[in-house]
From TrEMBL:
It comes from Sediminibacillus albus. This is Penicillin-binding protein, 1A family. In the N-terminal section; belongs to the glycosyltransferase 51 family. In the C-terminal section; belongs to the transpeptidase family. Residues 662-680 have a biased composition (Basic and acidic residues). Keywords: Carboxypeptidase, Cell membrane, Cell shape, Cell wall biogenesis/degradation, Glycosyltransferase, Hydrolase, Membrane, Multifunctional enzyme, Peptidoglycan synthesis, Protease, Transferase, Transmembrane, Transmembrane helix. Signal peptide: none annotated. It holds the Pfam family Transgly. The chain crosses the membrane at residues 21-45. Residues 329-606 form the Penicillin-binding protein transpeptidase domain.
Length: 690
């Protein structure tokens, strides 16, 4: 061969032409060698896998399947003969007319596309074959780079070398993405038309085949006009190729397509809002997009407690009337590590996928006050610190006047203790405290509790005028329940690939407490006061309506604004945060609806604790208890009508006995001793028998 080329070159007299011919021969030989090398490598590597991962499966904390995402081997994978012939013909006509004649790369089409792009000085025409698209779906990303295109071409050659055309076409039709989480023509057919792919008619097939070009842009649910316009082009192409008759074209163009209604399409799902939150968390863990996760074949082990989830859903259903638009966001988690055990982000997932636990930011009202009072405890306050509760106008630095008001205009018009202020939710006490400490300190304290929102350092922040999420409130209260340790709510414990290889496992780090354990406990005990009627004052404690339902110690705080109702509380084992309100921020005017958050919280907490051991909040070192008169804040005596066991950092407990409640006659005996005298004789004997 070389000698023939040499002889040919010797016959060329022109030196320039001789060199040009030699270069052409060398370039051609190099190209042939490169092509031969590519095909040899493709042959040696063998057939690439025709699947990518499989279904991504989600498991509960007891490893029961709670959800499954579509992958290429989903339950909707169908054989080529199970797909309507018109779908197959439409796909080939639209995407790759020479599919059965090329070997993976359509060289004339590539040349034509390159020429058109050159003339337009931009990319105006694609040249990817069905095989290339299938290769991209299986092995590569959708980034528009030359390296990706070269890899795509190589994989296309491998696929064509080791699989026949029908196998490639079947794989393509079962892996192409149609939007809305539907992978493959069968899944898409069921999603859009509620029928199998073998039952699609011409008009439906044309609409469906047009979607993958832009799953969002051509979705008939998102942009029906765009979808219909592309459908018409595909129908015209089918007629031009003589696949459908003129009469079939006429009927298909005018057919009124019946798309699946959302309520018909939506299957009943287990904890759908929780699964959405888990998917978002998984995306951050793996660092890949959602569509790659859905078809990645991962096994995701979550924190969901199916029993708690069912109880939460049942409680919400029974607590909220069907004829109201009142919405609910509720989450329960473990205060020990932040594991989310139940989540309801709204009343009806099929109606709205908006998660009111993780996405909605609403004003927490008085449920924000514990953060203020933790700051107060850090700055010398105790449970017995007294401030005057009466209508008060505060003149601010800018000259404006701020006048907070209490619920229904009730005031003590005398000093009340911190214990009472928290139990009764006194707003004047809270604003006085916030101004005394400085509003910036409350902003910083909220951040210490893990709420890193952009709050305005203003007096009204003490009354919960900054916006937070239900999830943030649950995590923040968890720090009180666990003795001051930082908590980050999470839904995923570990992730493996299809073959069980561990990709991620959450580590539980033993970090020192962020909050002072003694002050966290003192505040926790103060928060049990909302259920204790010994703290009744100018009004009853805020938790009185649900106190009778509670069978064990709980700490919590309710919060109310014109548009929001909150109840956040905890035991040593579970923290639950509940919000109710209207999505459009409409005022909650119905009195019964204002109590729904508390009712949901109380019912769920009691049911969730049914099988749990009875635990109380442990008193840490450096804390002492004393029975205190809740009005005077001094040590209680037998003359005090009410008394409560309150806790103090050692050395800050009251030293004096109550001076408000004394006998009229100094010689008068205490009430208990007088009672013993009255109960003497046969009454005492009867009392002993009973």
């Amino acid at each position: 061969m070389i000698s023939i080329v040499r002889q040919l070159l010797q016959q060329i007299n022109n030196r320039f032409l001789r060199w040009a011919t030699a270069f052409a021969f060398l370039a051609g030989a190099a190209c042939l060698f490169l092509v031969a090398s590519i095909y040899a490598t493709a042959y040696i590597l063998g057939p690439p896998s025709m699947t990518k991962g499989g279904n991504t499966v989600y498991y509960s904390d007891s490893e029961q399947v709670i959800g499954e995402e579509h992958g290429p081997e989903s339950r909707y994978w169908v054989k080529l003969e199970e797909i309507s012939p018109i779908v197959i013909k439409a796909a080939i006509t639209t995407e790759d007319k020479r599919f059965y004649s090329h070997h993976g790369l359509d060289l004339p089409r590539i040349a034509s596309a390159a020429w058109n792009d050159l003339i337009a000085m931009s990319k105006v025409q694609g040249a990817s074959t069905i095989t290339q698209q299938f290769a991209r779906n299986l092995y590569l990303s959708h980034e528009k780079t030359w390296s990706r295109k070269l890899k795509e071409a190589f994989y296309a050659i491998r696929l064509e070398m080791h699989y026949d055309k029908d196998e490639i076409l079947e794989g393509y039709l079962n892996t192409i993405y149609y939007g809305h989480g539907a992978y493959g023509v069968e899944a898409a057919s069921r999603y859009f038309f509620d029928k199998p792919a073998n039952a699609l008619d011409i008009a439906e097939a044309a609409l469906l085949v047009g979607i993958p070009k832009g799953p969002s842009y051509y979705s008939p649910f998102n942009h029906l006009d765009n979808a219909k316009e592309r459908q018409q082009k595909i129908l015209s192409s089918l007629h031009k190729e003589k696949i459908i008759s003129k009469e079939e074209l006429f009927l298909a163009e005018r057919k009124n397509l019946k798309l699946t209604e959302p309520e018909d399409r939506m299957e009943e799902q287990t904890a759908p809002y929780f699964l959405d939150a888990a998917l978002a968390e998984l995306q951050n863990i793996l660092g890949i997009d959602r569509e790659a996760i859905r078809s990645g074949g991962y096994k995701v082990y979550t924190t969901l407690n199916l029993d708690n989830q069912q109880k939460m859903e049942n409680v919400i259903t029974s607590s909220v009337k069907e004829n109201t638009k009142l919405q609910v966001g509720a989450v329960a988690l473990s205060p020990h590590n932040g594991a989310v055990t139940a989540m309801v982000g709204g009343r009806d997932y099929s109606d709205s996928q908006y998660n009111r636990v993780t996405q909605a930011k609403r004003m927490p009202g008085s449920s924000f006050k514990p953060f203020l009072y933790y700051a107060a405890l850090e700055n010398g306050y105790t449970a017995a610190t007294s401030l005057l509760s009466k209508p008060t106008s505060f003149e601010l630095e800018d000259g404006t006047v701020y006048q907070p008001s209490n619920y229904n205009g009730y005031y003590a018009n005398e000093p009340i203790t911190l214990a009472q202020a928290l139990a009764l939710s006194d707003n004047v006490y809270a604003v006085k405290t916030n101004l005394f400490l400085g509003p910036e300190q409350l902003v910083n304290t909220a951040k210490k509790f893990g709420i890193d929102e952009d709050f305005q350092a203003v007096p009204s922040l003490a009354l919960g005028t900054g916006a937070v999420t239900v999830k943030e409130m649950a995590s923040a209260y968890s720090m009180l329940a666990n003795g001051g340790h930082e908590v980050e709510a999470f839904t995923i414990k570990k992730v493996t690939d299809t073959h069980g290889k561990l990709l991620y496992e959450r580590e539980e780090a033993d970090q020192p407490p962020v909050l002072d354990p003694a002050k966290a406990f003192i505040l926790t005990d103060l928060m049990t006061g909302m259920f204790d009627e010994s703290l009744n004052g100018y009004m009853r404690v805020t938790g009185v309506t649900i106190a009778d339902q509670l069978s064990r110690p709980y700490a919590g705080k309710s919060g109310t604004t014109k548009t929001d109702s909150w109840m956040v509380g905890f035991s040593p084992d579970i923290v639950t945060s509940v919000w109710t309100g209207y999505d459009e921020n409409k005022p909650i005017e119905n009195v019964k609806e204002q109590q729904v958050a508390k009712e949901i919280w109380a019912d769920f907490m009691e049911q969730a604790h049914e099988k749990l051991p009875f635990h109380t909040f442990s008193v840490p070192k450096g804390v002492v208890g004393a029975y205190v008169d809740p009005v005077s804040g001094e040590l209680a005596t037998p003359y005090c009508g009410q008394q409560r066991l309150m806790y103090f950092a050692k050395g800050t407990e009251p030293a004096n006995y109550c001076s408000l409640h004394q006998p009229e006659d100094p010689k008068e005996k205490p009430p208990e001793e007088k009672k013993e005298e009255k109960d003497s004789g046969w009454k005492r004997w009867f009392k002993w028998l009973s």
